[in-house]
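User: Last request for today: this protein with nicotinamide-adenine-dinucleotide, please.
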Amino acid sequence: MGKFNGKVVLITGGARGMGATHAKAFVNEGAKVAITDILVQEGEKLSAELGEQVKFYKHDVTNSSEWETVVTDIEQTFGPINVLVNNAGISLMKPILQMTEEEYRRVIDINQVSVFLGMKSVLPSMQKTKESSIINVSSLAGFRGNNHGSVAYSAAKFAIRGMTKAVALEMALEDIRVNSIHPGLIKTPMTVQKGKEEIIDHLSKKIPMQRAAEPEEVTKLVLFLASSDASFITGQEYILDGGQLASL
Ligand code: NAD
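Assistant: Here's the final one, the structure of the complex with nicotinamide-adenine-dinucleotide:
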């Protein structure tokens, strides 16, 4: 019997990278999983691979009416939602003097406003069930700036920490837990680009553990926070960074 038998899980940005790894693990533990993303080909392929327990939705996380449509359909297909992983995000790094207002707002919209829309859209569904969990994906950049041009990315990822705590308190009496996770350098299409593998090697040297993590290492934490093993944990921040923040 899987740890998530009968549970309904929604993962945004789940067509590839960490979101796809989380989806596979939830399926292996018996969950019904809704994967949403703007990458239709990748999302449909993954969904077909994972079988009937999975449904892919073309979904832009910045669009509130698409959130409404997706949540309604998930409820009709699988039932009320137990777990939301607000995972979709982009990394647009530019020094402030080069970043346009439009680019800044785009990063905030995709990485921050989406988390607000996600929680707001899914909470009424969670209120129909017992023991729900929201995992908001922030970053190490939610604790510090970096010199690669993180003005917008850090702003959004810092904000997720505050939003997480505020909503955790609002939902504490309803058995809906809300936590944030803060990965450091993880090997995904966001960080490993074909022909540019030396970038991740270079960045790894600055990490006390001298390596980037595999997405599966993050997945283990996501499943823990989603499960009843974390039944008394809410409003917290979980950092997976190979020791980077320890030296601050
Ligand atoms: P990724 O690029 O492989 O995955 C991100 C997914 O989000 C993609 O499938 C993309 O299509 C989707 N997405 C982007 N804009 C969207 C939109 N408007 N609507 C719906 N989906 C959208 O990268 P990843 O590394 O797997 O990133 C997952 C999350 O982890 C992101 O929030 C990212 O900021 C965060 N993160 C990544 C790292 C890392 O080192 N890879 C570190 C810290 C935090």
